[in-house]
Automatic annotation (TrEMBL):
Domain AMP-binding enzyme C-terminal residues, every copy: 471-549
Name of the protein in its database record: acetate--CoA ligase
Cited InterPro entries: AMP-bd_C (IPR025110), AMP-bd_C_sf (IPR045851), AMP-binding_CS (IPR020845), AMP-dep_synth/lig_dom (IPR000873), ANL_N_sf (IPR042099)
Organism of derivation: Alkalicoccus saliphilus
EC number in record: 6.2.1.1
Length: 573
């Protein structure tokens, strides 16, 4: 077995085993000002605390894209987020109200998101690629009254069909705001708002601050609700796992539309007070290497798909850049292939540290640490303060190297507190007394390292993004030519999985390349670019149960040339 030993050095988590024995989450409380003042708000701890403690002039945010290049200190972030908090409060936002943020990465996104949290709102970040149906589903479910967006995206918000939605704040000049009575100019409101901190809403540790919609294998996307107390774990993992130090320049490549982009693109690093790099625009190897080089990034958190794309790019690109500032690299979202770890070792002279967690878990749970050996291909070991295990369907813990359900002992600080408006769904995760069951299959080896084996539902992880087949299938059958649709994840070297759709056409339609393109465009324009099936296969009929459910398991078996298993429930074997 190949093992990558830790480099000599000092680390924030020096002694993993000892810390596991002695650590208690009470110890983390000392990092926060509410421990002394009693005033709780995660956005305050993220920004204002650093100003109070004399770090106001430190750079909090470096933002750049093709047309902007800006830097903001913690003091500047404090003022901007205070202004945004005033804007939300003036428009009637109350503690616990969902407020959505639907915009590409920009400094304004961070002002709005943190400002809304300061005002006591529960923020629902929406990925910029979402089209009308995806936006509608999330706003409908949450019954949100307010959303912040850009002039480019505002037309994707079908406000006529969303009776609860009262206010749409639009960034940029005020011209858009004149177009409809629900539209309000965010920039104008910001200019007029005070920078004082009187709009900060003090909350309870158990009050919500973020609502991330994510996909399951069935049903519509569900709103995963997290509370301010998550800061304990976000802070502690930023320290132990990201191994952050005072002078680090940190870059998390994830968009805040996904949980990695909030927990570790905003809260973790800023709770810890480091300088955070945000790069807007699209991925390209040149752009990413230039970002690492130009900001002298020291700690870099990204995803296997991105690493694999960098790995596939010509070597000459890499050779143009000086990446010697890098000290620590981490990965999340999909299995990190040993091959990628080896590549990282070759080209950066560094180990890539895999981390495992989920939208529902709010923060990292199973990780590799700078001070511990890495077994390439393994997700690592549970963080101190958290117990993980492999259990069977009855809740019995399994022994070393036995495959089963990856489960976490319920009650860690960043655990989701509810699924918005859907208690039965929430309870499903905790159906086995005392455990949160993740939906992943894994095993634990004799040294306590966890090894990911797969999802045990139909959720698709494609290019690091989590996609529910149901949402795509539902959209596909709205296409004029499609009678039935089944969607699966098909293994892919670069993206982990790609989305593959099987469709049966209505009478009068014939399979063709044009029709395939047309279907792809349809999904792209109505749902989201990342939900587009890369492959579409036409079938006369799809395998279904007698109750009419598409059997994705059978589609998958066909695709992979594997045995189809028990077909007794199939309608027409
Ligand atoms: O299947 C696991 C996979 O991503 C799922 C969670 O997706 P999401 O909620 O979008 O959160 C992703 C980032 C926090 C998990 O159920 N996953 C996440 N990390 C890993 C992983 N699979 C293998 N290895 C990982 N390190």
């Amino acid at each position: 077995m190949e093992i990558l030993e830790p480099k000599q050095g000092t680390y924030q988590l020096e002694d993993y085993s000892r810390t596991r024995e002695t650590f208690d989450w009470e110890q983390t409380k000392e990092a926060f000002s509410w421990n002394k003042t009693g005033n709780v708000n995660i956005a305050y701890e993220t920004i204002d605390r650093h100003v109070d403690e004399g770090r106001g002039e430190k750079t909090a945010l470096y933002y750049s894209d093709a047309s902007r290049d800006e830097a903001y200190t913690f003091q500047a972030m404090k003022e901007k987020t205070n202004q945004a908090a005033h804007v939300f409060k003036d428009l009637g936002v109350k503690k616990g109200d969902p407020v959505f943020i639907f915009m590409p990465r920009s400094p304004e996104l961070y002002f709005a998101l943190l400002g809304a949290v300061k005002a006591g709102a529960v923020v629902g970040p929406l990925f910029e690629a979402f089209m009308q149906d995806a936006v509608r589903a999330r706003l409908e479910d949450s019954e949100a009254k307010m959303i912040v967006t850009t002039p480019e995206l505002v037309s994707r918000i079908p406000h006529e069909e969303l009776p609860h939605l009262e206010t749409i704040l639009v960034t940029g000049d005020s011209s858009k705001a004149d177009e409809h009575e629900k539209y309000v100019s965010f920039d104008e409101k910001m200019k007029a708002a005070s920078t004082d901190d009187s709009a900060i809403e003090w909350v309870d540790l158990e009050d919500g601050f973020v609502l991330h919609y994510t996909s399951g294998s069935t049903g519509k996307p569900k709103g995963v609700y997290h509370v301010h107390k998550a800061m304990l774990q976000q802070y502690q993992t930023a320290k132990w796992v990201l191994d952050l130090r005072e002078d680090d320049i940190y870059w998390c490549t994830a968009d805040p539309g996904w949980v990695t982009g909030t927990s570790y693109g905003i809260f973790g690093p800023w709770l810890y007070g480091v300088t955070n790099v945000v790069r807007g625009g699209r991925f390209s190897p040149d752009d990413w290497y230039a970002t690492l080089q130009n900001y002298k990034v020291t700690v870099w958190y990204s995803a296997p798909t991105a690493f694999r794309m960098l790995m596939a790019a010509p070597k000459e690109i890499l050779e143009k850049y000086d990446l010697s500032s890098l000290r620590h690299i981490l990965s999340v979202g999909e299995p990190l292939n040993p091959e990628v770890v080896r590549w990282g070792w070759d080209v950066f002279g560094l180990r890539i540290h895999d981390t495992w967690w989920m939208t529902e878990t709010g923060a990292m749970l199973i990780c590799n640490y700078p001070s511990e050996p890495i077994k390439p291909g393994s997700m690592g070991k549970p963080i101190p303060g958290v117990d993980a295990s492999i259990i069977d369907d009855d809740g019995n813990e399994l022994g070393p190297n036995e495959m089963g359900n990856l489960a976490i002992r319920a009650g860690w600080p960043a655990q989701m507190r509810k699924i918005w408006n859907n208690e039965p769904k929430f309870n499903e995760y905790f159906a086995i007394e005392g455990w949160y069951v993740s939906g992943d299959t894994a095993y634990k080896d004799e040294d306590g390292y966890f090894w990911f084996q797969g999802r045990n539902d139909d959720v698709i992880m494609t290019a690091g993004e989590r996609v529910g087949p149901f949402e795509i299938e539902s959209k596909l059958v709205e296409h004029e030519a499609i009678a039935e649709a089944g969607v699966i994840g098909k293994p892919d070297e670069i993206r982990g999985h790609i989305i593959k759709a099987f469709v049966a056409l209505k009478d009068g339609y014939e399979p063709s390349d044009d029709l395939q393109d047309n279907i792809k465009k349809f999904i792209k324009s109505e749902l989201a670019a990342h939900a587009v099936p890369r492959e579409i296969e036409f079938k006369d009929k799809l395998p279904k149960t007698r109750s009419g459910k598409i059997m994705r398991r059978v589609l998958k078996a066909w695709e992979l040339d594997e045995p189809t298993g028990d077909l007794s429930t199939m309608d027409d074997a």
